């Protein structure tokens, strides 16, 4: 869990470095984070249906798989668009994990 927390804390720094200026990167990160929060809120409505269908154990395994994909994928992809897609996977992972 410590590695995951460090990854999450450092993500904004890495994301901002993908842009021409740090200010532009921070602004875009704010927009990305806002979109993520709205997607997570929508996911909270759908996650109970998914977890009830596949079971709690499989739900945790799915959330862990998405988490691993997001962490490894962030290291492998390049460019702001693909990094954004990796960040938005958190909106899939979190509702499943919380349910």
TrEMBL record:
<feature type="transmembrane region" description="Helical">
    <location>
        <begin position="31"/>
        <end position="51"/>
    </location>
</feature>
<keyword id="KW-1133">Transmembrane helix</keyword>
<keyword id="KW-0812">Transmembrane</keyword>
<keyword id="KW-0472">Membrane</keyword>
<protein>
    <submittedName>
        <fullName>MFS transporter</fullName>
    </submittedName>
</protein>
<dbReference type="GO" id="GO:0016020">
    <property type="term" value="C:membrane"/>
</dbReference>
<feature type="transmembrane region" description="Helical">
    <location>
        <begin position="60"/>
        <end position="85"/>
    </location>
</feature>
<dbReference type="GO" id="GO:0005351">
    <property type="term" value="F:carbohydrate:proton symporter activity"/>
</dbReference>
<dbReference type="InterPro" id="IPR036259">
    <property type="entry name" value="MFS_trans_sf"/>
</dbReference>
<dbReference type="Pfam" id="PF01306">
    <property type="entry name" value="LacY_symp"/>
</dbReference>
<dbReference type="InterPro" id="IPR000576">
    <property type="entry name" value="LacY/RafB_perm_fam"/>
</dbReference>
């Amino acid at each position: 869990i410590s590695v995951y927390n460090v990854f999450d804390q450092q993500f904004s720094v890495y994301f901002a470095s993908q842009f021409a200026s740090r200010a532009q990167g921070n602004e875009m990160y704010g927009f990305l984070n806002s979109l993520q929060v709205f997607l997570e809120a929508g996911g909270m409505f759908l996650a109970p249906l998914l977890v009830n269908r596949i079971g709690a154990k499989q739900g945790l395994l799915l959330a862990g798989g998405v988490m691993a994909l997001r962490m490894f994928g962030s290291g492998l992809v390049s460019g702001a668009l693909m990094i954004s897609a990796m960040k938005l996977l958190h909106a899939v992972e979190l509702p499943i994990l919380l349910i």
